[in-house]
Amino acid sequence: MPSSLTAPQRVRNRFTTRARQFDDLYEDERLLVRLLRPGLFRRRQLAVDTVREYGQPSVLDVGCGSGRIGEFVLEAGASRYLGIDFSAPMIELARDRLERFGPRAKLVTEDFLTAPLEGTFDVVLALGLFDYLPNPAAFARRMFEHCAGGGCLVGSFPAWSAVKGPVRKVRYEWLGDCPIFNYDREGLERMFRDAGFARTELRTPGHSGFLARAYRE
Ligand SMILES: C[S@@+](CC[C@H](N)C(=O)[O-])C[C@H]1O[C@@H](n2cnc3c(N)ncnc32)[C@H](O)[C@@H]1O
């Protein structure tokens, strides 16, 4: 049964108590782990490809976690990187990991919806984030506000599947006290359009979710 905490509090608890456990998922790049969790590596690759396409973009990484994607996009040429996450242990791990990039990389421990953020970014990353958001439209709107003209949002979105859907529901919501949400193509296209994005590209690698790029004109 879910606790009496709000959905964002439950998500924050999960990623506060399990920061290291989440981070370790990336460490093990053996074939079996890659087969079990292909989404982790596919979304990181899309972030890297997007940064390379833009050249030396500024990057906002919402729900940056332990900086596992941050280090790749900085290596790929991001001129400026701001990672934001409301889990303090995740930000600690990210700080250690991204220290070598000096002032190009900044990190803040805040809730994205209420964080005092200024300016716009060429690329806004939201990878492994929308899975946990009860109010995704509000996040998409705020991401649009901080996306520069000509820029894009890169996001990952789980979809319900007959096998993975029930397993994730039991694992996260029932056993882990953490809310989890799924998306479909029409809903995503509508959400991005309503947020202000001019064009959306959706891919369905592996068919258990979407990788999206939404462009601001
Ligand atoms: C599954 S992790 C993904 C981390 C990273 N993007 C990656 O793909 O490796 C999701 C992260 O989103 C963060 N998060 C969830 N809701 C948030 C919010 N409202 N504001 C800031 N961070 C949030 C969590 O704390 C967690 O670290």
Structural description of this entry:
The chain has helices at 7-17, 19-27, 31-36, 38-54, 68-75, 88-98, 136-145, 164-175, 185-195, and strands spanning 58-62, 80-85, 105-109, 121-126, 147-158, 199-203, 209-215. By secondary structure, it is an alpha/beta fold. The radius of gyration is 16 Å and the shape is globular. The termini are far apart. The site of S-adenosylmethionine has 21 residues, from helix 1, helix 5 and strand 2. S-adenosylmethionine binds next to helix 1, helix 5 and strand 2.
List the helices and strands and how they pair.
Layout: H1 7-17, H2 19-27, H3 31-36, H4 38-54, E1 58-62, H5 68-75, E2 80-85, H6 88-98, E3 105-109, E4 121-126, H7 136-145, E5 147-158, H8 164-175, H9 185-195, E6 199-203, E7 209-215
Parallel strand pairs: 1-2, 1-4, 2-3, 4-5
Antiparallel strand pairs: 5-7, 6-7
Helix pairs in contact: 4-5, 7-9
The chain binds S-adenosylmethionine.
Residues 8, 11, 15, 22, 63-65, 68-69, 84-87, 90, 111-113, 127-129, 132 line the site of S-adenosylmethionine (SAM).
Features:
217 residues; alpha/beta; 7-stranded mixed beta sheet; 7 strands
Shape: globular
**What is the terminal-to-terminal distance?**
44 Å
**Helix/strand order, N-terminal first:** HHHHEHEHEEHEHHEE
**Overall pLDDT confidence:** 93
What is the number of helical segments per DSSP (H or I, 4+ residues)? 9
Ligand catalogue: S-adenosylmethionine
Please provide the count of β strands.
7
